[in-house]
Design brief:
6 helices; mainly alpha; 72% helix; 144 residues
């Protein structure tokens, strides 16, 4: 058999190009561990009206949480698929978190305490995860 291990790869003519490509592929993935929790938060937000059983008492909040949860989940998928283009939208997730905190009083009519607490927790988590994504994106962005 031929000896396939003749030395290190540094003598390969394409070694520098391969290193650059590897750095490009991995660039901006500092927040890879946040993508999953953001997606799960969006999934829970969308399903929370049925989990907490406030579908009959607050129909406007049901639609609201479904739409905002879907938007958060789509942001998470975008963060995973194209992180270098999407992490600028992490500030939008912060805005959605703030909106989720105040939405029960604006969208709902006399919401229950459980609905208020649920939206405050979802909003606070979205705000924190958005700040983590935004902070890491700002840290990994190259400065001129």
């Amino acid at each position: 058999m031929a000896d396939l291990h003749r030395g290190d790869i540094s003598s390969h003519p394409d070694a520098s190009e391969m290193r650059d490509r590897y750095a490009r592929v991995l660039g901006g993935r500092d927040v890879a561990l946040v993508d999953g929790p953001v997606f799960l938060l969006g999934l829970y937000c969308a399903a929370s009206p049925w989990i907490l059983h406030y579908t009959a008492s607050q129909p406007a909040l049901v639609t609201h949480n479904l739409i905002v949860g879907t938007a958060i989940g789509l942001l998470a998928l975008g963060f995973t698929r194209a992180p270098e283009r999407m992490y600028g939208l992490s500030w939008a997730m912060c805005a959605m978190g703030i909106w989720m905190i105040i939405a029960p009083w604006i969208v709902g009519s006399r919401p229950d305490t459980g609905v208020i607490v649920n939206n405050i927790v979802i909003g606070a988590l979205a705000l924190v995860l958005g700040l983590v994504c935004a902070g890491t994106a700002a840290k990994s962005t190259p400065r001129p």
